[in-house]
């Protein structure tokens, strides 16, 4: 086994959350008098956490007080509506289960709010992750390596024995900042050419390829 620990991103890597995110952002936007956004627009806004998502969705000229209100509306609405259309990507559950049965520890580190990360991990992947961490107050979001380092510390795993798995330029930078290897997937929120342009070295096109890269 090449790695003892596999740390997964959530949105676009293990879960297709795009439709629920789009519906929740548009609920918050329209409640605050702003126009709704398309699925493709929301997809392009993702990767840097909820505040950046809201800022981009509201538009560059939105005053901060409006962004704050939209964010608060989203934050109240999304936890109860985050698992309506969300689904695991095909084959990802089997991939994670196979890794665990082979002795690989698995975890999640996401820029999604911590309450949603834990809820979705428990709902869609019960008993498949040792630790699931999302955005928390006072902890820098990815691409800062802080949450990844926290997982390594809690599990007592050296970074050379761990790999970070994600779908975006933020995940590529997170692995680099944590001085870890990365596996970047193509089924998420970014195109393969974009990922290569942003430094992806190891790209996989199916969950089975993740298993092969880790277990050999």
Keywords:
216 residues; alpha/beta; Rossmann fold; DNA polymerase, domain 1; globular
Account of the protein in words:
It is a single chain. The chain has 216 residues and is α/β, with parallel strands linked by helices. It has two domains: 5-16 and 87-215, HAD superfamily/HAD-like (Rossmann fold), CATH 3.40.50.1000; 18-80, Putative phosphatase, domain 2 (DNA polymerase, domain 1). The chain has ten helices and eight strands. The protein has helices spanning 18-31, 39-45, 50-58, 64-77, 92-101, 114-124, 146-155, 169-177, 192-197, 207-215; strands spanning 5-8, 15-16, 87-88, 105-113, 131-135, 162-166, 181-185, 203-204. The protein has a six-stranded parallel sheet, with helices on both faces. Strand 4 (105-113), helix 6 and strand 5 (131-135) form a beta-alpha-beta unit. Helix 1 packs across helix 4 (64-77), helix 3 packs across helix 4 and helix 5 runs parallel beside helix 10 (207-215). The mean pLDDT is 96.
Strand content: 15-25%
Q: Write the CATH fold name of the largest domain.
A: Rossmann fold
Q: Record the strand order, biggest sheet.
A: 5-4-1-6-7-8
- CATH class of the largest domain, anyone? Alpha Beta
Number of domains as seen in the coordinates: 2
Under CATH, the homologous superfamily of the largest domain reads: HAD superfamily/HAD-like
Spatial shape: globular
User: Low-confidence parts lasting 5 or more residues at pLDDT below 50?
Assistant: none
């Amino acid at each position: 086994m090449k790695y003892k620990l596999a740390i997964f991103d959530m949105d676009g890597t293990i879960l297709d959350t795009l439709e629920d995110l789009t519906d929740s952002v548009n609920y918050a936007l329209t409640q605050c008098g702003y126009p709704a956004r398309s699925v493709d627009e929301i997809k392009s806004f993702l990767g840097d956490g909820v505040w950046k998502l809201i800022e981009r969705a509201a538009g560059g000229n939105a005053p901060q007080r409006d962004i704050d209100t939209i964010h608060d509306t989203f934050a109240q609405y999304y936890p109860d509506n985050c698992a309506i259309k969300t689904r695991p990507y095909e084959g990802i559950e089997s991939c994670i289960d196979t890794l665990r049965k082979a002795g690989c520890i698995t975890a999640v580190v996401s820029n999604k709010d911590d309450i949603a990360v834990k809820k979705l991990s428990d709902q869609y992947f019960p008993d498949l992750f040792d630790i699931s961490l999302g955005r928390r107050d006072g902890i820098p979001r990815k691409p800062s390596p802080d949450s990844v380092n926290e997982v390594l510390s809690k599990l007592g795993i050296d970074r050379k024995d761990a790999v970070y798995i994600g779908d975006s330029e933020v995940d590529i930078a997170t692995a680099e900042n944590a001085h870890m290897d990365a596996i970047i997937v193509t089924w998420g929120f970014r195109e393969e050419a974009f990922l290569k342009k942003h430094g992806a070295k190891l790209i996989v096109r199916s969950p089975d390829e993740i298993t092969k890269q880790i277990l050999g």
